[in-house]
């Protein structure tokens, strides 16, 4: 697997999206999504997309195998993962489960940053990796807690459990009340189906056919 492929896998690009359902009752202008009453703003997603796009370009250049990546596709994938992080935190809070910052740092230490990344972009990317690591560990704790209620912390799970697939999370994803901005499309139960909005149209267009302004480059 190339360096670029590893990074894209880490970011959730090209992987199966979340199994989410919800009714549009809490979505207001300016929101990309609302998860059980918690808003994720379009500004947050736009800023994160710009930072991760710069990150991926830097990784591509250092890996020696540049790959086209549509900005709309990246934005859609990041929205999915941020929603997943939020659901995971809600479930963990309800069950009283925790993870320490030291454990998060141990996971993110495996990912380096390309040279020349803008300071503000670096902060956003590092924050995203922190959230991803926290969610991954918490999901492992949730799975272990379902088998043994004495498990309540990240210190109670192994690296193997952290790295393993977590199909048990599907139940929580399906129960969550998730509303997605219509301009992004709609949830089909596993991923975003393109709608009539500009983002949806771009996602439905092959990356090679997109103009340079709509690709990470």
Fold and architecture overview:
The protein has helices at about 5-10, 40-65, 70-95, 100-110, 120-145, 160-165, 170-175, 200-205; strands at about 30-35, 40, 180, 185, 190-195. The chain is mainly α and about 220 residues long. The strands form two sheets. It has a three-stranded antiparallel β-sheet with strand order 2-1-3. Strands 4-5 form a two-stranded antiparallel sheet. Strand 4 (about 185) and strand 5 (about 190-195) form a beta hairpin. Mean pLDDT is about 80; it is low at about 1-5 and about 15-25.
Brief summary of the model shown:
The protein has 217 residues and is mostly helical.
Describe the secondary-structure layout.
Elements: H1 3-11, E1 31-35, E2 38-41, H2 42-63, H3 71-95, H4 101-108, H5 119-147, H6 159-163, H7 169-175, E3 178-180, E4 186-187, E5 192-193, H8 198-203
Antiparallel strand pairs: 1-2, 1-3, 4-5
Helix pairs in contact: 1-2, 2-3, 2-5, 3-5, 4-5
Q: How many runs of DSSP E, i.e. beta strands? A: 5
Average predicted local confidence, pLDDT: 80
The radius of gyration is: 17 Å
Q: Topology as H/E string? A: HEEHHHHHHEEEH
Structural class: mainly alpha
- Termini separation comes to 21 Å
Oligomer: single chain
What strand line-up does the widest sheet have?
2-1-3
So what's the overall shape? globular
Largest sheet at a glance?
Answer: 3 strands, antiparallel
- Helix percentage range: 40-55%
Share of residues in strands: 5-15%
Number of helices: 8
| Low-pLDDT segments | 1-6, 13-25
């Amino acid at each position: 697997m190339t360096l670029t492929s590893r990074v894209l896998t880490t970011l959730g690009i090209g992987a199966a999206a979340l199994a989410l359902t919800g009714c549009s009752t809490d979505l207001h202008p300016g929101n990309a999504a609302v998860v059980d009453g918690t808003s994720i703003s379009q500004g947050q997603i736009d800023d994160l997309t710009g930072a991760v796009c710069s990150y991926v370009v830097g990784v591509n250049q250092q890996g020696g195998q540049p790959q086209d990546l549509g900005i709309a596709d990246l934005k859609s994938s990041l929205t999915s993962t941020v929603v997943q992080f939020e659901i995971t935190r809600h479930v963990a809070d309800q069950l009283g489960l925790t993870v320490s910052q030291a454990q998060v740092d141990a996971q993110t230490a495996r990912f380096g940053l390309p040279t020349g990344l803008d300071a503000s972009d670096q902060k956003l990317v590092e924050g995203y990796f922190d959230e991803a690591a926290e969610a991954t560990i918490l999901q492992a704790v949730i799975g272990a807690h379902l088998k043994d209620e004495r498990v309540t912390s990240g210190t109670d799970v192994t690296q193997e459990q952290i790295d393993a697939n977590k199909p048990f999370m599907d139940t929580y994803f399906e129960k969550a009340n998730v509303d997605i901005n219509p301009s992004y499309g709609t949830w089909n139960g596993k991923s975003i189906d393109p709608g009539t909005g500009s983002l949806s149209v771009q996602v439905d267009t092959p990356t090679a056919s997109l103009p340079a302004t709509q690709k990470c480059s």
